[in-house]
Amino acid sequence: MEDKINAFMEEVKGRNSHEPEFIQAVQEVAETVIPYISNHEIYNGKNILLRMVEPERLISFRVSWVDDDGEIHVNRGYRIQMNSAIGPYKGGLRFHPTVNASVLKFLAFEQVFKNSLTTLPMGGGKGGSDFDPKGKSDDEVMRFCHAFMTELCRHIGPNTDVPAGDIGVGAREIGFLFGMYKKIRNEFTGVLTGKGLSWGGSKIRPEATGYGTVYFAQSMLQSKKDDVKGKTVVISGSGNVAQYAAEKVIQLGGKVVTLSDSGGYIYDKEGIDEEKLAFVMEIKNKNRGRISDYLDKYTSAEFHKGKTPWEVPCAIALPCATQNELDGNDAKTLLKNGCICVAEGANMPSTPEAIHAFHEARILFAPGKASNAGGVATSGLEMSQNSLRISWTREEVDERLQKIMKDIHDSCIDYGMDEDGYCNYVKGANIAGFVKVADAMLAQGVI
Ligand SMILES: NC(=O)C1=CN([C@@H]2O[C@H](COP(=O)(O)OP(=O)(O)OC[C@H]3O[C@@H](n4cnc5c(N)ncnc54)[C@H](O)[C@@H]3O)[C@@H](O)[C@H]2O)C=CC1
Ligand SMILES: O=C(O)CCC(=O)C(=O)O
Predict the structure, then answer these.
(1) 241-258 pLDDT, tens per residue?
(2) Which residues form a coiled coil (predicted)?
């Protein structure tokens, strides 16, 4: 089996030699899916996985825009349309200086499996730009978003490809992008998700990724007759996913003690309650400030400059910032300090060494493609509401989200249970996600 996996990976590396993040994401899937393919006759000899690692379409384009001083800037825009076997391409847009083809291809590849797991009819895609919104005025962000959509609009549509937010793309950016799409195409459709509530957005979409991650952690704990209630929780990040993961942990009776950004982490040993979290939301969503500003109001908290929060003792860890933010040494520290459950809110935040350590220690570990799928699932619910031209209540959407997260958890159990009764959620998520897409590809022939 190892020979088969190595031969496959050699081919992938040969074609994508300068794309380490993409190779990392494919390797993780190959290790679990290739043995499954070998044991299932219908997938044998069809090169299904080889077809799945090649994007159906990779679009790259120039984005020129003018700053507040009249200077012209050029950024690179992308959309990776990875796989449309089970529905229109669907996945977020990331605006961050580290964006490149490798990062977006890893995200698009993960998205294919994640969207399949949601049980909704969505293919996988991802896009973005190396544009850095940090320090830009609202007008500059608007001009950039308008310029970006001027090109992107010809490649997307409600039945073709439906982008959404990701790092650096929130409600403000989705508004500017939607405005330009509507102007150029002269149509008001569900072409983007994460829209404002008064113009086609879904209730609970802003909360969905963070809430869903905690619902998934809760399902894992309940499978061991345990609970989030009363547990100390370490969260990284302080953006959309981290904020609403923290909110749900607080609602379920857990104690959140950290949040972070690229400058470092805050540690509040008293716990970040709802009032303190509202202040974090003001810092991040309104003032667009730094997490260290938390200490301006809550002076007894500590700020650890340039560090990640994994050294803080906890029972539950929720990495909600970015890829490869939790390495093998961090994993060992978490385990040493008694961590029993890790659920990824971010995409691929744990390195392969960290995942290996969690599996070896037999703790509960959920990969992002399962545990953070609540965001895209609720985007799928937004698409349904747009098509039906109706709007569900908060309770209705939250109920559907909870059911979807429970179903994803159960699919992981179905495909991921080891002989000794330990659930390998990575294996479960990869195989469950693969089967649905592979079956659709087989039915549609070689295209
Ligand atoms: N927004 C969504 O619905 C979904 C987001 N995700 C993933 O969740 C993660 C966070 O995304 P959002 O919260 O939406 O973005 P965001 O832009 O709202 O927040 C990103 C957060 O990550 C932090 N961050 C970025 N780079 C960092 C670094 N190098 N070190 C430490 N912190 C860093 C930022 O300071 C910020 O707190 C990403 O991995 C994203 O792909 C996954 C599923 C859905
Ligand atoms: O809501 C969406 O379409 C995409 C969310 C996303 O980018 C992700 O799941 O990583």
Answers:
(1) 999 999 999 999 999 999
(2) none
Shortest-distance Cα residue to atom 1 of ligand 2: 376
Supply angle C-alpha 309, 314, 319, rounded to 5: 45
| CA atoms of 129 and 95, how far apart (whole Å) | 5
From the alpha carbon of 169, which atom of ligand 1 is closest? Answer: 17
| DSSP at 71 | -
User: Which top CATH class is 206-371?
Assistant: alpha beta
pTM of the complete model: 0.97
Residue 126 annotated as catalytic: yes
Atom nearest to 378 CA in ligand 2: 1
Which atom, in ligand 1's list, is nearest to the CA of 237? Answer: 37
Q: Domain boundaries in the chain?
A: 1-54+427-447, 57-189, 206-371
- Ligand 2 midpoint to CA 302 (Å): 32
Q: Would you say 409 and 377 are in contact if contact means Cβ atoms under 8 Å apart?
A: no
Is CATH 3.30.870.10 the right assignment for the domain spanning 57-189?
A: no
Mean of pLDDT over the chain: 97
206-371 and 57-189 share a CATH fold = yes
> 378 C-alpha to center of ligand 2: Å?
9
Q: What is the ipTM of this complex?
A: 0.98
pLDDT tens figures, 3-57: 999 999 999 999 999 999 999 999 999 999 999 999 999 999 999 999 999 999 9
Of the candidates 202, 196, 312, 209, the residue with the CA atom closest to the CA atom of residue 264: 312
Count of Cβ atoms closer than 10 Å to residue 368 Cβ: 25
Task: Report residues whose beta carbon is within 6 angstroms of any ligand 1 atom.
Answer: 165-168, 170, 209, 237-242, 260-262, 320-322, 325, 345-347, 372, 375
Among candidate residues 126, 255, 284, 436, the one labeled active-site is 126
